[in-house]
Request: fold
Amino acid sequence: MKKFLSVLLSATLVLGLTACGSKPAAEKPAEGDTAKKELTLGFIVGSREHVFYNLIEEGIMTASKDLGFKAIVLDGELDSNVTSDHINNLVAQGVDAIALSCNDPGGTTPAMEAADKEGIPVFTFDCTSDVTDVVKCFVGTDNVEGGRLGGQETVRLAEAGKTVGIINFDEPQSCIDRRTGWEEVVKASDKKLNIIDIGNYEGDAAKAEQLMSDALSANKNDIAVVFAVGDPAATGALAAIKAAGADTKIIGFDGNPEAKAAILDAENGKYWVSEISQNPIEIGKQISKNMVDYLNNGSVTEAKIMIAPYIITAENAAK
Amino acid sequence: MNPCLQVKNISKRFLGVKALTDVSIDFYSGEMHCLLGENGAGKSTLIKIISGVYDATEGEVIFNGQKVNFHNPRQALDAGISVIHQELSIANDLTVAENIFLGAEQRQGFKMLLDRKRMNKEAQEILDFMKVDIQATQIARELTAAQQQMVEIAKVMTKKAKVVIMDEPTSSLSGHEINALFEQIKILKEQNVAIIYITHRLKEMFEMGERVTVLRDGCKVDTFNIADVTEKELVASMVGREIQDYYNRQEHTAKEELLRVEGLTGKKGEFKNVSFRACAGEIIGFAGLVGAGRTEVMEAIFGAREYSSGKIFVSGKEVVFKNPIEAINAHIGLVTEDRRRTGLMLNAMIKNNIVLPSLTKNSKKFGFLDLKWEKEVSEDYVDKLKVRTPGINTVIANLSGGNQQKVILAKWLLANSKILILDEPTRGIDVNAKSEFYALMNAFVANGGCIIMVSSELPEVLGNSDRIIVMREGEIAGELHYKDATEQNVIELASLNSKNT
Amino acid sequence: MEKLKAWLKKNMVIVFLIGLCIGFGVTTDTFFTTKNVMNLTSQMAINALLATGLTYVIILGGIDISVGSVAALAGVFSAMVGLMFPNMSVFMSIIILIVSSLIIGGICGFFNGIMITKFKVVPMITTLATMTIARGVTYIVTGGTAVFGLPTQFSWLGAGRLLVTDSHPNGIIPIITLFTIIVVALMHILLSKTVFGRHVYATGSNLQVAHLSGINTNRVILKSHILCSIMAALGGVLVASKLQNGQPGACEGYEMYAIASTVLGGTSLAGGSGSVARAMFGVAIIAVINNGMNLLSISSYWQKVVIGSIILLAVIFDMSQKKKA
Reply:
């Protein structure tokens, strides 16, 4: 048994190693072949566990076909340590440019600067770093603007003097920005809305459900509108509102497929009426385009490109 | 001569229960002072007070002429009072030297680093001085129980203790190992150390001791000079009455064969070519030194250890037990040598322990427990075996060793065992309980059962067995009828190198 | 009086729970409303199921940290199966949910059990591996996207309520609560009243003794891990049903709350003792603290600090009681 196991183990190890090792080596472009060299671009997405980043990746892959470059996409696991290692590895592989979702600027900046010193231009998307000037170009969602759109929708949906709530996610910068934009607009409105903080859902839909049902209890179902800073929060809020028999309206954020489905659904669409959608595919395409432009022309037209979010309601959700 | 250590009018109460009442004893340097008494007589409580585990409720401890008040074992240790507990406190994964210096490590380099070299050297010096064959660099796990005990003694030697307390140090040792221990005790005595020695074995006491104090029910009965007292007198003062014949030998008549073992050989050579038979109505004694392979043979018969060749027959039919379940179904029961580790669920109630192997057969529909049955049979056996306990719901850890052993016996009786294998059945049990246990054994064989008893206590083997099988280094060295057996010839068989059957 | 004292000491969790409820009852005006109490019971359900399964493996002296991931996997699995039956009836949805949890829980538990009994991998490492693998598989099969588009019937078990009245048009009693009570009660009886349950205690109390007393300890361990994973999977499908949606990131970190509840309920991590019923008090304490502090709008960070402190206090109290005994 033991023998069999050890043989099996070493066999897997050997196979795994060769599989990992052979690919880059085989496809590495021959040096000195400058005639018509295909560009190789490295990308590090925040996390493959989020549909948002998967859609960015989709945009990158589309661009890679259209613009004719080779894309290496890696998963940063929302961990600056992992992300830094990926940057170093991409440098070692000799990619032409690197773009990353800079979720933790403090942690990844040293690796970014090192890459820049090696002469490999660094780009960011979704989140960027303010602490370094090596970033050639940033493409991201204007989350504060998205929050403002959410605020506009909140004000539109709530009657004067009613209570409106927000389900937050306190850690990611993007969600903090959304909250900032939302509060700015709601507080400025002349409808005198009563704002309550429903809580930090920590990215967990079931937790959002609990927070929402507790908030409905505490306010005797009297919450007119809830703004969810992410779609899982909206999903949880929907379940809680239906269970409580309240008629709270939901505004989601992200633009995930389930949001569109809910808005179009006869039953769920009564509550989930509006969605602030990011445009991750566009982010992926734009960052790719700017990287190629920079490598061809030596510069980019704009250093910061904000892809504006947009509102989805029942009228435009089907598109 | 002034006593080295005195306890004066010590009393100790636990939540209103008196464990010790007004006990005064003097201990002298260079002497071995034995404490004798049944379990629960207060011996353990007394040494725990001396070594700082408990505070006395009343009375005082005087050490080297000064009143002392230790609040924890560390203080007592620092003052020069060491204890070697029944359960050894050896760290299995450390080396012998590391164990010897545990808590008092030699350091170097600004006291940051362990000075392994020096520790190994000094440990080896002590071990050599003790004339024991142990390397300081060996991992403790590799040592036998007896060798580990030597390490404990080496530990005491490095501490330069003035008082050494030994709590049943010989309970897991075989004959020649006991002799080795006695050599060490002699060395300690020569170094003017006072030894407080707890044992149930009177023989050891007469061989090594100078004085003996008998405790009964928390009170001191008397202190004797060992030279002036007889075994009978001691036993009488311990139990408050005279026990006439402790073993109460009864004549058994062997009936049909229940178990036959032919050429059993272990996978790792723990035992080789072991053959014997056991019949209904018989007690077979297995004598031999610790490590002679007796326990391993029993485990193999019980399906708890694999063997490479040989045959086992139960009631004439060949059996191959892959696990204890099958052995139990064939009406075999095993009382293991280590009650606490492999015999009992210590934190469970008496009744839960008694019914464990019989649960499946006595369950109700759909595997539900029959709690009424559990209560009835448990009460029945507690009654029949005279287990001294407040009730069947008592947690078994709270019972004395003898009563725990009776519960284990009850467990196998209830499981309807016909062949009972008892491995060191009376280890750490007091005289009275032993005597009761032997009576139960006799009753079991009288009812057509068969007992195979592994024991390192020769008087026990000689006093109870019908036939005595002696093992040496994994093989059967010989078999004797009890009428032909003496301590002398059994020891010869167990330890001599030439074969003589 | 003495008896009362002894009872109080033994049942400190219950006293503490009652105290907490009274505290929140006084400080909020909504804690004791029917609605909130019913919400509270439904919020407890998931953790109750996870803690019930964990009680078994913790009594064995083991641990299972894969419960959260197994729950998530079962949740998305049931949602994906549900998508194949767009016209399902309520009855059908219950079958889908339960069968999904049996399949996923059965596979994961079997895997854990075999690794522990046959390959002798320690439970912590085995279940750590399962935790990572199950989460990975969840993301692989979903591509990181929620599984959505399920019919309303799918949410009957998780979100439905019974006893519709005028003042409560959505019903009062959460079906998830009733369902959980039934499952937990069955699991409690299995542990406390059957031979199998007794074998679990015996194996956890002393594996050697159990083995030498003719108990097939490997089988007991295997079965317990299967039960534990099935309970986790049941929790997961209920989350999916409640949200009408399979979330790949669901139940992350729930294992810690479940372990904490079990320990709060007096189950010793050393094995051999504990009970499903008592674990439920631990579940209730954590749920009440979360709910009450939500009602008081206290930050979730403080909730974590409070729950952590209470677990420590409970264990210290428990130890001091054992020492005295």
User: Anything to note?
Assistant: The longest helix of chain C spans residues 90-117. Chain C is about 75% helix and 0% strand.
